[in-house]
Design goal:
Elements (H helix, E strand, L loop, with lengths): L6 H24 L13 E8 L6 E9 L2 E2 L3 E7 L7 E6 L4 E2 L2 E2 L4 E2 L4 E5 L2 H6 L4 H9 L2 E9 L4 E10 L5
Antiparallel strand pairs: 1-2, 2-9, 3-8, 4-5, 4-10, 6-7, 10-11
Amino acid sequence: MKDDAVSAPVGVMLLLAITIVIGGIIAAFAFGAIGNSSTELPAAEFSTSVTGAGDNLTLVFEHKSGQPLNTSDLKVTTFIGTQGEEESVGSFSAENLYMSGKKIQSGVWTAGMKLTLPVTEENARLLGTEKEKIIDAAKKATPMDVKIYYIPSGKIIYNSSFILQEKNR
């Protein structure tokens, strides 16, 4: 009688099968098929502009089309680059924006709505500088970048560069 058994080939097959299964799981995580619980980005289109001049200067953020968004889910960052002077970088929650002259605090921003940020001393701090510097930058037609982040996903849903320039209503 022979003492050889099939345990060695079966063991090799089991190790090979386990290796393939573990490799598949690692690949699924690596390529995002498993464990990616990221939030879908909302589809929305925005625009930014400036209205007014001097002490009446106001930034306007318009939700042009797309899904309604909770202002508590949005973070706005700004960058005002002035040549030869200190640049200003601001970051604030969209809850700091205004609608009809009042801070919205928390609410739903729907298509067609314009939210504003009057350039006051308090709001200038949100933009990372002082009121006089923003007014001066607007007089010089200074480039400004605005990004809106969707906090649940941590991704940018709006990125724009425009000229910060005084405009009469």
